[in-house]
Amino acid sequence: MKIFVDTSAFLAVLNTDDRHHPQARDFWFKIVQEEAMLVVTNYILLETYALLQRRLGMEAVRVFSSDVVPALRVMWVDERLHQLGLSAMLAADRRGLSLVDCISFEAARSFGIRHVFTFDKHFTEQGFICHPTG
Length: 134
Fold this sequence. Notes:
The protein is an alpha/beta fold and about 130 residues long. About 55% of the residues lie in helices and about 15% in strands.
């Protein structure tokens, strides 16, 4: 199974104080054991690195970089995908919907991915099957 992984999932897995940590940790171990194809964009990686550095510190960045990123398949955002996401964000005209979110929706669709590991309700709104809660 192909699963797109959102920043919210990475933060919940790595931050033991996150309210979703127990669910995230259990789901992470499940999908790793099942050898699911875990897909992200480089924008998700950038967002995750920045948030980990700010919220948890450099050691969390090191752990993510050395222990998590090698298990991921990274889709590199090109100009076309960036423009699709930007157009979607502008069309949605919603302050809480980020460019990274909109690019993630477009990337997952273009890769034929329906399942997303996330705690972000925007993916459900976009018709994705969200895990671990959905």
